[in-house]
């Protein structure tokens, strides 16, 4: 009786929390929409500097992740559905109070934090794809620069004809960079490239390209040095993975293979001990 009452109180409490949370979010959304409608002048909305900075930072994250607002909204909707599905387990399954509280806690985390985790993972994956293609991209630029072509011509050529060699992320960024480099100042193009990609390797290359403009050092020399540095770093990462492979294989053997071998030996022995007459 007491246990059933505890379950009922817990479910009621969780329902009340969800209700008031949803109500707060709806009221906050309506409040923001109302303020925007009041303070909007000729289609422009007066937004505080803090809100503007947050919105700009979020836009940069979406660009770095390579996803749109629509895709992010879909992830949010899936997170809410997944959280509600976990909450339904509390009602459908006859579990202990501690386990129900744990499931409720996990459901809240999924509902509110899974979109942000998804966004961070997409940013990391896109940066990794760009870094993996960067050395090849620079080598192709060097070949064209050695043939006497300019930087804009080299970027155009690589972007148009290297689609089968390079990933679309780096090719799209090179197109945007080339257009901004022609349209705006080089400083704006450099800053936008670093912000859009979020790659430390590209930030380093951009820093050397700025130095090239200030000192007159050839861009080809900078690209050659950076390409060699990236290749050396990749080789170092391969050597690190090779050095830790023995540890990983040993760990897999102890976890998966060794228990199977012990079972193959121990089970027949235990069967003989239990049934000596057979």
- CATH C-level label of one domain: Mainly Alpha
Quick one: overall form? flat
Main pleated-sheet profile: none
Secondary-structure arrangement, i.e. CATH architecture of one domain: Up-down Bundle
By CATH, the topology of one domain is Receptor-associated Protein
Order of helices and strands: HHHHHHHHH
Distance between the termini: 52 Å
Number of strands: 0
Q: What percent strand?
A: under 5%
The number of helical segments is 9
Q: Which residues form runs of ≥5 with pLDDT under 50? A: 37-47
- Supply the helix-strand structural class: mainly alpha
Secondary structure elements and their pairing?
Blueprint: H1 2-39, H2 49-65, H3 69-92, H4 97-146, H5 151-161, H6 168-183, H7 186-197, H8 200-215, H9 219-274
Helix pairs in contact: 2-4, 3-4, 4-5, 4-9, 5-6, 6-7, 7-8, 8-9
Descriptive overview:
This protein is mainly α and 278 residues long. Among the domains are: 1-46; 129-234, Type II secretion system (T2SS), domain F (Receptor-associated Protein), CATH 1.20.81. It is 86% helix and 0% strand. It is built from nine helices and no strands. It has helices at residues 2-39, 49-65, 69-92, 97-146, 151-161, 168-183, 186-197, 200-215, 219-274.
Properties at a glance:
278 residues; mainly alpha; 0% strand; flat
């Amino acid at each position: 009786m007491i246990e059933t009452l505890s379950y009922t109180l817990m479910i009621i409490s969780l329902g009340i929390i969800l209700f008031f949370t949803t109500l707060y979010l709806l009221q906050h959304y309506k409040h923001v929409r109302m303020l925007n409608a009041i303070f909007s002048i000729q289609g422009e909305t007066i937004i505080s500097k803090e809100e503007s900075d947050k919105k700009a930072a979020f836009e940069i994250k979406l660009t770095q992740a390579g996803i749109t607002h629509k895709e992010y909204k879909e992830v949010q909707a899936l997170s809410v559905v997944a959280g509600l599905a976990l909450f339904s387990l509390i009602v459908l399954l006859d579990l202990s109070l501690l386990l129900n509280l744990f499931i409720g806690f996990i459901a809240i985390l999924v509902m509110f934090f899974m979109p942000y985790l998804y966004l961070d993972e997409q940013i990391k994956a896109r940066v990794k794809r760009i870094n993996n293609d960067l050395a090849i991209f620079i080598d192709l630029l060097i070949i064209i620069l050695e043939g006497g072509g300019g930087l804009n011509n080299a970027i155009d050529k690589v972007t148009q004809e290297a689609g089968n060699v390079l990933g679309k992320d780096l090719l799209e960024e090179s197109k945007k960079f080339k257009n901004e480099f022609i349209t705006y100042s080089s400083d704006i193009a450099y800053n936008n490239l670093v912000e859009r990609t979020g790659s430390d390797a590209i930030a380093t290359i951009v820093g050397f390209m700025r130095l090239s403009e200030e000192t007159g050092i050839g861009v080809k020399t900078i690209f050659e040095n950076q390409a060699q540095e990236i290749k050396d770093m990749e080789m170092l990462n391969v050597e690190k993975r090779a050095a830790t492979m023995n540890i990983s294989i040993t760990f897999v053997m102890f976890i998966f293979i060794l228990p199977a071998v012990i079972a193959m030996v121990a089970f027949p022995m235990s069967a003989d001990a239990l049934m000596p007459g057979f």
